Give the backbone structure.
Amino acid sequence: MAKSNEPIWWSLFSAGGMVAAMIFPILIIITGILVPFGLAGDDPLNFEKISTGISNQLIKLILFTIITLPLFHWAHRFRFTLVDVGLKSMSTLISILCYGGAIAGTIVSAVVFWNI
Amino acid sequence: MSTYHRPVSNTWWLKQKSYFLFMIRELTSVFVAGYCIFLLVLVYKLTQGADAYGNFMAALKLPISVALHLITLIFVLYHTITWFNLTPKILVLYRGEDRIPQGLVAATFYAGWVVVSIIVAWLVLGV
Amino acid sequence: MAETMQLEIFRYRPEKESVPSFQTYEVPFREDWVVLDAINYIKDEIDGTLSYRWSCQMGVCGSCGMMVNGVPKLSCAVFLKDYHPNKIRIEPLTGFPVERDLIFEMNDFMTKLKEMQPYIIRKEGEERSLEEGEYIQSPAELAHFKQYSMCINCMLCYAACPVYALDSTFIGPAAIALGQRYNMDSRDQGRDARQEVIASHDGIWECTFVGECSAVCPKHVDPAAAIQRAKVSSTVDWFKDVLIPWGKKK
């Protein structure tokens, strides 16, 4: 039995899971409750302010990480969920679709961020 | 004379509450990915100019957007809670012979979560 | 007429049937009886053909594991009064082939246990001879692995694990916890030897941290935690191997 290369996917899963756990709830509250119901001042996410903020390279990098790492968290967890409901025979295909999806999402994100 | 192999059902996770909650926990990842895509679209709209971005922001006020956000929030909160509650099992720390209580480790992560949330809110909404 | 209770028990007699069935027995209800007492009563007074494993009657031998209303338990540790007056369904532990009635085949676990090399391994030339005396271990060092040494090999954890039920190539909770018991023992130097098994595809990486193994463990071993900790240490190893390939290979 050879040692597996799972660690790379598990590391990304853990990092993505921690990012999602820490940062997503507040972001969802902001975009889902505070902004729509006007509870955070007048147009707090206005175009000028956010454009200026996101042109900062560090902010860009942080936001890129926040968007892409949790995709790998989904990929790894969803892959095992499908295996756990009995699709083990298709596990290679499932892995390709899941991790491939996360990689595709990362590439698309990189293109979007490149054009900021 | 042969041993009997009992068939295993693919709906094993419906048979017991703990298994069902496990499956819910795993499915939170779908909502996490969903919000990633939402954020990406938001950034994309930003690169498409003030009008496109303005329309996107206006759409946040639609009932469907609020509803999806609330459902996502419930699942993501379940992810957060299960994540922080399980972390002390992995992060095992000792002071000599005594193990640092799991409750204390979890509490530290929850505290960190509050701090991070405040900082993010301040950065995004304030400034 | 004294109170009674019903036990619906899984029967499988390979010499006379190809599929299992259930047989219901009526047993006396006693406040202080455990399920094992009821099953022993059945064997002694009602049906001597019923086959099952048991020994110590006190939760230390690990022999009497069975499914009680779909949950893996030690039958010597489950009280009738917690189910009375309802019927109790008794089946062999999930995930294992059934030999006869409540007796399941343990060979798979035995093989995996051996693969884990559950004994102190010392490197070449680092064995201590008798004259050199004992290995000295502090209470703090003992505390690091003591929990994992409490396993009684009852296999309730395998019965609770949906991953094992779906795919018996998974090494499983108890085997990995026992591997960790030795990996974390300060006297042991065999971690690398065990990693081939632990860090393989059939090892820790099949685990999805359902956590039911730890929930059902009668000795509070917490195999789920042992497995996740092994994931962390195996991941650290992997990064070291990948990022520092010229490092000393043991």
Summary: Residues 241 and 247 of chain C are 8 Å apart (CA to CA). Chain C has a mean pLDDT of 94.
